[in-house]
What does this fold into?
Amino acid sequence: MRDYKIDFEDCLRRVQKPARYIGNEFGSVHKEKTDDMMSFAFCFPDVYEVGMSHLGMKILYHMLNERDDTVCERVFAPWDDMEKLMRERDIPLLSMESCAPVRNFDIVGFTLQYEMSYSNVVNMLDLAGIPLRTRERGDGDPFVCCGGPCTYHAEPLAELVDFFILGEGEEVNGEIMDEYKKWRGSGKNRDDFLMSLVALGGIYVPKFYDVEYNDDNTIKRFEPNRPGVPKQVRKRIILDLDKCYAPEKLIVPFMETVHDRIMLELFRGCIRGCRFCQAGYIYRPVRERSVDRLCGIADGCIKNTGYEEMSLSSLSTSDYRELQELIDRLLDMTVDKRINLSLPSLRVDNFSMELMEKVQKVKKSGLTFAPEAGTQRLRDVINKNVIESDLIRTSRIAFGGGYNRIKLYFMLGLPTETYDDVKGIADLAKKVIDEGFFSIPPEERKGRSVSITVSTSFFVPKPFTPFQWEPQNLISEMEDKARFLKENIRSKKIVYNWHNSDISLLEAVFAKGDRRLSEVLITAHELGCKFDGWSDFFDYEKWLEAFKINNIDPAFYANRRIPYDEILPWDYADIGVPKSYLIKEHKRAYEEKTTPDCREKCGGCGAASFGGGVCFE
Amino acid sequence: MSKIRLGFSKTGMAKYISHLDLLRCFTRSIMRAELPAVYSRGFNPHMKMTFSLPLSVGVTSSCECVDIEFEDGVSDSEIMKQLNKTLPPDIRIISVGDPNISANDVFGAEYRLTLLCGGADENALEAVKKFFALPEITIIKRTKKKGEREVNLMDFVLGVEAPKITDDGIEICLTLSAGGRKNLKPEIATESLIKYMTENTDVRVKGYNIHRTKILYDINDPKIFK
It folds into this structure.
């Protein structure tokens, strides 16, 4: 077999940021693979510095490597310059640890964090020399699987992926390896292995389902095509996070990554139920780690990584019940060591000055709030329980405390939005300055002036949210709204940024699309689409061409209002929250009625059926 | 409080780590080792750490130096032992001592170049010798301050030993100007040599390795004979 190390190394001399490809970081696991062992290639469909920022990958990599019978190695998408050299020299996609061809691994697993990475999945399979379509794979080819949040609505990848892992991987990944061990050498065929996975629960095998369509392109029938395959696959979750594996020996990259710090996961799920937010539904129910367990993990991570920063990362960190105690104890562990503690995603309503003072003991960082919508009416529609007076009060405290920059995040194109709501964003930003800053007597102000950054992204209707039936605004509407907002922001103290509208459309298509999009993905790959999340690569024209070649209208997926009774491409997944609850929430949105959070009053969403978490607090 | 000088090697894939990444790597290794480093004062405190002579990306070395300040109470041998546990495998501490010579005194560095090629013979070695005997070779030097400019490579060559044939190809021991006053990156000299070899011999060089073997502080160093 050809040894690719020398050729690969020669490429490194000729690329930007060679440190992306070298591996051998402190904490990386290098195992000698013997014939009786199994191998798992953990692929992140983006470049190294993005992939290495992802906590899930770190957990599952170390967890699989704790098994004596399994080698897990990392694979990232090579940047364009590297890919070109690799293709020129016939070097296939290689794993980081042993420089082994990815196609020689037993199982090749991708983590799907966002829709705009799908073209990279296709490109990486191609670069690995693995047949792109499941039906083209046979004996000697690896099994291709996917995990991560997008697997709940992953039909656009159905033709390319052998199986999807729905939910949290800590338990089920080990069970998959056990099944593989039994299957390997048993003489049974590939489908037999996949059937053994179906029996585990939480595994969706797209080829075991047949889909028929109506003349209007909607789905007529979506049914299992063999006995023993359930109509719906229920996600697997970890109920007790304290007992669940959490790595304390993390890989510490040489180069700077996007999130270059210890990430402490306080809890999974979110009690809030914002109606646009998919994460708020698919991770239900909320399950917390105890302060003791968190401090134990933090202590291990501090000792084993040497990181100078720790962030508390969860969907809505300030909802952690014992946040005060946790922060006090973490500060005791970090201040002397000059480790900076950072708190992302602060909510306006329970933000306290005291907390802020504590956290900034080490280093003062900027403040970010996400009111998401400009008017109270629209905030009620989306169930974002932020009140204007709270935001103003909080900004006054922040400005008085010496902060001089606040970032505000909003969405444009939300259901029921009017131009008054759009203008509301400009008004709110101005009020934050006028009432938050200028109401402070000049002698008490710290710093002469302040600045507000307003960022908007375009609403993407996501499966498993009450807005899953909603159409997305047309690109022209989105751009009109952004322009209108820009015109209405007149203060020089406010900077306005907005996201690309073409990408938002594509995101909606692949979030809500069906398996007919698999061929579009392959065509787009052939046309050269990759790294769509990167503005320097994203090429909207190529995507339009790919849709055209396959005779598919993207507007069918993105801009059409779907009736409640239509079969949805993601109906195969059972996240624990039934459609009936989402319909109820959708109707409440139109009535402009908010729904209290899980701790205030149980809304009866169905997640209690898992038998744990916030539902039983 | 005392400043100590650590000698270390940077081999294998670690040669692709940039200077800034190396700094971060040392900081985190010291944190992991729980060694009492001294921090600078000011708004953004950082460990007091100075590298003698930055190494080009892609070059390995067995003679790197970094000066780090530690609080009193930890022995040199303890620092070496602990750091070798917490540094990544391709970076090893090989000596600990006092920084008796200032980093400003660096004026040269010795490199071992390996031109990777098959079938090198006496003629190839002659060509290498001829190359280094040329009075003038124009190269393009890029610096941030001065931009691109043409200079004579030979003004930077302080010494060269007779080339040898090895299993990998041709090995050359070369001493170049280095340091704050006058510096040449070894890969520029190497690429210029490869270009000459391609134009004047049948040898086809497939690639090269550069390894820094010594940093020179003493103008009377016996390595300098030119």
In short: The first strand of chain A starts at residue 38 and ends at 44.
